[in-house]
Design goal:
The protein has 384 residues and is an alpha+beta fold. It has 2 domains: 4-23 and 38-193, no CATH class; 201-303, no CATH class. The protein is 26% helix and 27% strand. The strands form 4 sheets. Strands 2-1-4-5-6-7-8-9 form an 8-stranded antiparallel sheet, with helices on one face. Helix 1 (37-52) crosses helix 5 (181-191).
Length: 384
């Protein structure tokens, strides 16, 4: 079963006091610097960290609970907790998120006095995985502190003797996929998400160097296997025509050159002004190289079910934003895409080519919000 993300919720995290919003096949968030777009993006990264068992480490790397907690005022006796949740559905095109879908929630707080944790360590307090079918949701996983109860394939609730530490998540720690298949499905789905936050284009960028000649179906998060991704498309899949159209759309008259790899894979570009000269990756401009990396992300041989792009317009010439939007829309027919941007130009191009309505992220009283979002989740036609 292939699952897509149908809704995200977050509370108590940085500028996210309490927010829930739906996701479609292509979800676009646009807003100014400081509005909190990156915090929305980071929510998904932290959920993936929970599936990988490194959530506490990720929050500790942000400065710990004191830095990651909601920065505004809390009500008296309101607990200092971070809560993150994702809902999953077999499809985001229908209303099946509430029938046949799943929801995973994890809550993190300060360590209790008697816990096996350091004083300021982010401590996993609770986890739940719920199957939504009909009127009565079924809890597949319930974790309170170190205690874990899970429902096996026969429907039996079993208390697991796991002795979890405060820094560990139950989702990552239950290692019996045949016995707890739904937990394994959710974990596998979340670990398959891909985040492209920083694709460096400086002189020492991995994008500028040849890479090992290993068949590469998906671009790595740092883009270090871009040459192998292109070589896989050209020499394994033999998908030369799609790459030719992509280059012609963005760089009219230019040509992507991908030699047959031996021990290393490489690529270069031929431009119409210099038809006899191949410019290898180390010579390309930052914008050209970044665009090619985004193309590798969106056109790879095997795409993940979900990718997140954070400000993909960085370093790109404005003339490249319309081709990029077309590339993103085409890819969204093969996978689910979450995109945050400051570029109104890119947002308008995505609206035009993808018939998607970008959502504007704003700050109100220090709290990140999305215009047109209702308190109960879902968007209406009027901005708040």
């Amino acid at each position: 079963m292939s699952l897509m993300v149908s809704e995200v919720r977050a509370s108590g995290y940085r500028s996210l006091r309490a927010i829930r919003f739906p996701l479609g096949r292509l979800s676009v968030f646009v807003g100014a610097n400081g509005a909190g777009k990156t915090n929305l993006y980071r929510t998904l990264q932290l959920l993936q960290a929970s599936a990988a068992g490194v959530l506490s480490s990720e929050l500790a790397a942000e400065g710990g609970m004191e830095s990651a907690l909601w920065a505004g005022k809390r009500k008296k006796h309101e607990p200092a907790l971070i809560s993150l949740m994702a809902k999953f559905a077999p499809s985001v095109d229908g209303d099946d998120a509430s029938d046949g879908g799943f929801s995973y929630r994890v809550t993190v707080g300060f360590a209790a006095c008697d816990a096996a944790a350091f004083t300021l360590e982010p401590q996993v307090k609770e986890e739940t995985l719920t199957f939504h079918h009909g009127a009565r949701p079924i809890k597949l996983l319930e974790r309170r502190g170190p205690h874990v109860v899970a429902r096996d394939e026969e429907g039996l609730r079993i208390e697991l003797a796991m002795d979890l530490m405060a820094s560990e998540t139950a989702l990552a720690s239950i290692a019996e996929p045949e016995r707890f298949a739904d937990l394994a499905l959710i974990r596998r789905t979340m670990l398959d998400w891909r985040f492209y936050h920083v694709l460096r284009t400086d002189r020492d960028s991995p994008l500028r160097r040849p890479c090992l000649a290993v068949t590469s179906p998906t671009l790595s998060s740092d883009g270090s296997n871009l040459a192998a991704v292109f070589a896989t498309l050209v020499h394994i899949r033999q998908d030369v025509e799609s790459l030719r159209r992509m280059i012609d759309d963005a760089f009219a008259g230019a040509r992507l050159v991908v030699p047959p790899p031996e021990r290393a894979a490489s690529f270069g570009m031929i431009f119409p002004d210099y038809p006899q000269r191949v410019f290898d990756a180390s010579e390309l401009s930052d914008g050209t190289l970044r665009y090619l990396a985004l193309a590798g992300t969106l056109m790879a041989y095997r795409l993940p079910a979900f990718i997140a792009l954070n400000e993909p317009e960085a370093s790109l010439h404005p003339d490249l934003l319309d081709p990029l939007a077309r590339l993103i829309v085409q890819a969204s027919s093969r996978m689910q895409i979450w995109l945050v941007t400051h570029s109104e130009h890119l947002a308008a191009s995505l609206r035009k080519h993808g018939e998607v309505e970008p959502h504007t992220v704003v700050k109100r009283g220090g709290e990140t919000w999305i215009q047109g979002l209702k308190q109960v989740g879902g968007f209406d036609d009027d901005e708040e």
